[in-house]
Amino acid sequence: MIEYGFTVQDLEYFLLVFVRIASFFFSAPFFSTRNVPRRTKVVIAFAISLMLFRFVLIRSVIVYNTIIGFAILILKEAACGLCIGLAGYLALYIMQHAGSLIDMDIGLAMAQMFDPLNNMNMGFSGMIYQYAFLLIMTGLNLHHNILRTFISSYESIPIGNITFHAESLTNLIIRYVTTAFMTAFQIFLPVFAGMLLLNVVLGTLAKVAPQMNMFVIGVQLKIFVGFGILFIMTNFLSYFADLLYGLIDEMMTSMIASFV
């Protein structure tokens, strides 16, 4: 006969584990996609929490005085999971921002499409890059590595021992934003160079043959040349995915370290 005890302290500990994982699923890349039903996300988060609670984590005593104290612990765990997930989600924002820069340069800034994953309008190139990155992540099982990186946070940040450092978080956010803009411009750089050369050629032709309407010709040429460059850049999608995944791992690790 198998006997298993489940005390009130175990329930409190399990709730704290579940809150951190559920908050991470709400904001992390791949796991936070809106086309997955919320009930499915809750069930997966509950199953992972149960496995961690039963087989992985070493249970410790949670110290609090009143119900308000326990509520504060719940809020800390939720904030920790959200921040770690948002640190990883920044990679998708990089792809969206790079796509918006590309669309603006090749003349497709007004070509907005509805993205069901983010429930918002998005540019053509940004949507292509985002879905390509998610497909590569799924095909290479990189989302498993993201989950492993998050689970390692329980070793660095034990349950109930979260410490917020305002200065460290502020410096980390500033570094995130700077890195995001620099990486997005690196992805946008081939299109920028191609459009710059095309503008030089069109400017030269406008001086040589002023009777030609360069505005009409330039709009069409920019679209054709832009699509040609995007087609060539598909060979570098694996490089971009590797760059962004390394950025995700670095950002999530840095965010975890900021709560220690």
Topology, please?
Elements: H1 8-27, H2 38-56, H3 67-106, E1 112-115, E2 120-123, H4 124-139, H5 142-151, H6 153-156, H7 166-208, H8 214-233, H9 237-258
Antiparallel strand pairs: 1-2
CA radius of gyration is: 24 Å
| Overall morphology | elongated
Please state the structural category: mainly alpha
The number of distinct helices, counting runs of at least 4 residues, comes to: 9
Low-confidence stretches: none
Q: Order of SSEs, N→C? A: HHHEEHHHHHH
- Report the sheet with the most strands, covering strand number, pairing sense and barrel closure: 2 strands, antiparallel
Mean pLDDT: 81
State the share of residues found in helices, binned by percent: over 70%
Q: Give, in spatial order, the strands making up the sheet with the most strands.
A: 1-2
Got a strand count?
Answer: 2
Ends apart, CA distance between termini: 42 Å
> Which percent range describes the beta-strand content?
under 5%
The tally of structural domains comes to 1
Question: In summary, what is this structure?
Answer:
With 260 residues, the chain is mainly alpha-helical. It is built from nine helices and two strands, in the order H-H-H-E-E-H-H-H-H-H-H. It has one domain (8-258).
Q: Would you mind describing this structure in some detail?
A:
Helix content is 75%, strand content 3%. It is mainly alpha-helical and 260 residues long. A two-stranded antiparallel ribbon has the order 1-2. The protein is elongated.
From the structure above, extract its key features.
260 residues; two-stranded antiparallel ribbon; 9 helices; elongated
